[in-house]
Structure formats: structure tokens, C-alpha cells
Specification:
This protein is α/β, with parallel strands linked by helices and 443 residues long. The protein has helices at 3-7, 20-26, 39-49, 60-76, 90-101, 113-122, 144-148, 163-170, 194-201, 216-220, 234-244, 257-279, 284-304, 315-326, 331-340, 345-352, 358-372, 377-387, 392-400, 419-436; strands spanning 82-86, 105-109, 124-125, 129-133, 139-141, 153-156, 178-181, 207-211, 225-230, 249-254. The strands form two sheets. Strands 5-2-1-6-7-8-9-10 form an eight-stranded mixed beta sheet, with helices on both faces. A two-stranded antiparallel sheet has the order 3-4. Strand 1, helix 5 and strand 2 (105-109) form a beta-alpha-beta unit. It binds 1,4-dihydronicotinamide adenine dinucleotide (NAI) and 1,3-dihydroxyacetonephosphate. It comes from Psychrobacter coccoides.
């Protein structure tokens, strides 16, 4: 049993599972035999690192059975993927721990030398995951070059604000490694997603993005979870599945990189809205309305920017939206809750002291949607409350009075012929709106 398991004793009443079964039956990494990648793995890596290979569109049923076959071969031939995880926050640590527990050769890069020393000594991440013992095979380093050299896959789990800088720093050491983003955000001022930044900075590399309902603390507790690896490269998808998949963590595949990435980035906006709604003690109907209209906004935005709307029905869309909109473990939810309790955005961010990507994403998406004329009423409303000091109640009422629209616009497109009626209703209620529109109105 791994040291992580020793600490996490079984408590099924709280949903806390040990991974006794995994350790004993699923992954039996034989360290002594694992120094070199197996033939199968070497093949996967070779294919993954050759540009163009594996980029064809595949019949999903064939992919499913191929994945299963490959997974089986990998299970039958214990392998040692060489992985680097960059970013020692809660998510980078949780994912690195999963891979180490699966028998991969894993180094977690943390920029602070003293933190590396402390993690090596205690095998815990005291700041971001206090109380969770990490796998004793996990290695730590603050030497970026040494960490990324001679690796098969480099996973980035730094905040979006540090993503480009981190890629620039590793660029000199990239030879044939693949890169996978775990980051859920957008670059400030450029609206670039992490995959866009990878294409800018490392145009030759094979890359993927991973996203899904993956609250780090629940993963550390071995609560069953699932995620999505999206890449144009089939071999890379398989390699990531091999690295992270276990009885507690299922890794599904997709080739809609944009859709998967947008799901992870956009849901943070609505987690803030939902945290705020929770502070106002709204009912279940209201939460359901907010969640569902959020999904409509996300998929509309996705389609306008090149994603497949069906992707938003998957784990990285509705799955992650649900997880972060319903849990105080979500930092974005907590930010919303603090805002709803009357705190300013700056004070809330300071109090949180961790990454909450939604704070920046609201601004990016508000600007982009305004510029491109994409209908995103919840995002605009949230922007008005947070950045234009509008009263939340007045803004919420305004949202409720918006015109008649169809439910699922991909099933029945909106009927714009009722615009006149909508305008009349809005004119009739505008006096009330004006009264409620600013915080000085005595809301
Ligand atoms: N925590 C979670 O449950 C999940 C987080 N994510 C995403 O993962 C990304 C990272 O988030 P967390 O690990 O939760 O953040 P965190 O707030 O727990 O930690 C951030 C880490 O990044 C490091 N960092 C900050 N600036 C850096 C820089 N310039 N260079 C190197 N390292 C730097 C910090 O020192 C810290 O170790 C975010 O985009 C987040 O949305 C995705 C899924 C789940
Ligand atoms: O993305 C997450 C879970 O899937 C984590 O959400 P927060 O960044 O809001 O904590």
C-alpha cells in the first residue's frame, strides 16, 4: 500500500475511499523492471511526438475499443512513463500524486526552493493540500531544466497568468516531449486559451488539454472522479490515460480541444455567480435556472468560437459546471460567496489567497462577447455587479425581465420576431430598473 493510502483510512459514510484495491490489483508497478519504457509505450511516445501522426478523425466506436485494448496491454506490461508536472499548487500536486501512484516516474516542479525541501522531507504539500500524505515515489525539484529534460509528457498546472512565461522558460529544453495543459483560464488581455499559447510558444510540440470536474481535495480523498484529455493526437490521449487512469480516476478522451478547454475556463464565471446566489440564499429552482442558462451561454460562446456544442454535455462542460457551482471547495464559488456577502472583489481575492481563474475570465469573456455581439447575459450581469458597482438585486431582476427566448437554441432557434414585444416590456419596466440599478439606490 502506498503511503498516501496509509493516511487516508476508509470511511465510506463520508465518501472517503482507500485505494487498497487499486494498489493490490490494478497497478502493480515493479520499479526494478520499469526503468525503460516498454515497446508499446515507446511506440506511443514516438507516435505522439511526430507531428501530424494521430491527427485524423476517428470513428468513436473504434477509438473506444482501441483505447480499451491499449489500456489492457499497458496494464499487462507495467510501464514507466516519464512525466513532469509544473506547478506545486493543489492541482499540480494532486495530479502528480496520481501518476506517481500509478507507477510513473514523476517529478513535480515547484518554483520555491524551500518549498521543495519541505515537500521532499515531509511528503506533503503543507500550503495547498495540508494533511494529505503524497506518494513516496513522487520526486520534487525547483530546477526547471532538469525537470523537463528527458521526459515523455510535461503537464502544466500553473495559473493562466504564468502559463506563457513558463512555456518560454521550458522552450530551450524541449526536444520531443508532449505538453498537456491542466490550466483552466484565459490569458489576460489577449483572450488566448492555453492551447493557443502552446501553439504560439512551442509550435512544433504535440499537445493536449485536460479538464473535468476535478476538485483537488476530493481527488486526494480518493473520491471517484473523472476527467477528459483532449488532443488531436490519439497516441497522446492514450498515454495520458495510461498515466492517470485508475479505479478512482477515470480519464475519458476527446478530440475537441477548444470545447474541452472552454468548458473548464467558462464554468468558473458561473461558479462565481452561483456562489453569489448562495449568499443570497436562493432556492433550488433558481439554482437550476442559473446552471442551465449558464450551460446555454457556454455552448453558445463555444459555437461562436469554434467548439462543438455537444462537448458541453460532457464532463468538461456540464460535469465541471455542476461540480464547481455546487461546492464550497471551488475557489471561484467561494469568491462569489464573499462578493454576495458584501466584500469587494479585491478583498475577496486577497482573503482566498489561491487561484480563482474566473475573476479574470469574466473580464475577458465580457469584452470578447461585447465585441463580437455574442449574447452572454449572465456574464455581462456579473461584470456589471463586480466591475461597474451595480446592485446585484437590480441586475438580477433585469436578467429575469429579458425577452422571450427559446430553451435550447440548437433545437429551436430564437424567434427574433418577438423583439418588439420584448422592447415594450423592457420599456415598461425600465423605470423600476433605473431605481434598482446602482448600489446607492438603497437595494
Ligand atoms: N485546484 C483544483 O481543484 C483545480 C485547479 N485547476 C486549474 O489548475 C491551475 C492551477 O491551479 P491550482 O493548482 O489550484 O492553484 P493554486 O492556487 O493551488 O496554486 C498555484 C501554484 O502555481 C504557482 N505559481 C504561481 N505563479 C507561478 C509562476 N509564475 N511560475 C511558477 N509557478 C507559479 C504557485 O506558487 C502555486 O504553487 C488553475 O488554472 C486552475 O483553474 C484545474 C482543475 C482543478
Ligand atoms: O476546476 C476546478 C474543479 O474542476 C476547481 O475549481 P476552482 O478553481 O473554482 O477551485
Amino acid at each position: 500500500m502506498t503511503s498516501a493510502n496509509k493516511d487516508n483510512t476508509a470511511n465510506h459514510s463520508t465518501g472517503d475511499f482507500t485505494d487498497k484495491t487499486t494498489a493490490q490489483t490494478e497497478h502493480k508497478p515493479d520499479i526494478s523492471n520499469n526503468e525503460k519504457p516498454s515497446g508499446l509505450l515507446a511506440g506511443i511516445i514516438e507516435r505522439a511526438t511526430k507531428s501530424g501522426v494521430g491527427r485524423r478523425k476517428l470513428d468513436p466506436s473504434i477509438v473506444e475499443s482501441d483505447v480499451e485494448k491499449n489500456m489492457q496491454k499497458i496494464r499487462d506490461n507495467p510501464t514507466k512513463l516519464r512525466l513532469a508536472f509544473l506547478g506545486g499548487g493543489s492541482f499540480g500536486t494532486a495530479m502528480a500524486n496520481l501518476a506517481a501512484r500509478n507507477g510513473c516516474d514523476v517529478t513535480l516542479w515547484v518554483r520555491n526552493k524551500r518549498t521543495v525541501k519541505a515537500m521532499t522531507k515531509t511528503q506533503t504539500n503543507k500550503k495547498y493540500l495540508p494533511g494529505y500524505k503524497l506518494d513516496d515515489r513522487l520526486k520534487y525539484s525547483h530546477d526547471l531544466a532538469a525537470t523537463v529534460k528527458n521526459k515523455d509528457i510535461i503537464f502544466l498546472a500553473v495559473p493562466s497568468s504564468a502559463f506563457r512565461e513558463t512555456l518560454k522558460n521550458i522552450a530551450p529544453f524541449i526536444t520531443g516531449q508532449s505538453v498537456v495543459s491542466l490550466t483552466k483560464g484565459m490569458e489576460k488581455d489577449t483572450f488566448a486559451l492555453m492551447s493557443d499559447i502552446i501553439k504560439d510558444e512551442l509550435p512544433e510540440v504535440n499537445f493536449g488539454v485536460m479538464s473535468g470536474p476535478n476538485l483537488a481535495i476530493e481527488i486526494m480523498k480518493n473520491m471517484p472522479s473523472a476527467t477528459v484529455i483532449a488532443s488531436d493526437s490519439e497516441p497522446l490521449r492514450h498515454a495520458v490515460q495510461a498515466a492517470l487512469h485508475s479505479a478512482f480516476f477515470r480519464v475519458f478522451a476527446s478530440d475537441d480541444v477548444k470545447g474541452v478547454e472552454l468548458g473548464g475556463a467558462l464554468k468558473n464565471i458561473y461558479a462565481i455567480a452561483m456562489g453569489m446566489a448562495a449568499a443570497y440564499d436562493v432556492g433550488e429552482n433558481t439554482k437550476a435556472m442559473l446552471l442551465t442558462r449558464a450551460l446555454a451561454e457556454m455552448s453558445r460562446f463555444g459555437v461562436e468560437t469554434g467548439a462543438n456544442p455537444l462537448t458541453f454535455l460532457g464532463l468538461s462542460g456540464v460535469g465541471d459546471l455542476y461540480a464547481t457551482c455546487s461546492s464550497e471547495l471551488s475557489r471561484n464559488f467561494r469568491i462569489g460567496n464573499m462578493l454576495g456577502s458584501g466584500m469587494s472583489i479585491d478583498a475577496a481575492v486577497k482573503k482566498l489567497g489561491q487561484t480563482a481563474e474566473g475573476v479574470n475570465t469574466i473580464q475577458q469573456v465580457h469584452e470578447k462577447a461585447t465585441k463580437e455581439g455574442i449574447y452572454m447575459p449572465i456574464t455581462h450581469a456579473l461584470y456589471a455587479v463586480i466591475y461597474e458597482d451595480k446592485a446585484a438585486l437590480g441586475v438580477a431582476l433585469h436578467l429575469m425581465e429579458a425577452g422571450f427566448r427559446s430553451d435550447v437554441e440548437f433545437v429551436m432557434p430564437h424567434d427574433h420576431s418577438n423583439a418588439e414585444l420584448t422592447a415594450q416590456i423592457q420599456a415598461a419596466t425600465s423605470d423600476t430598473d433605473d431605481d434598482n440599478a446602482t448600489k446607492g439606490s438603497g437595494e
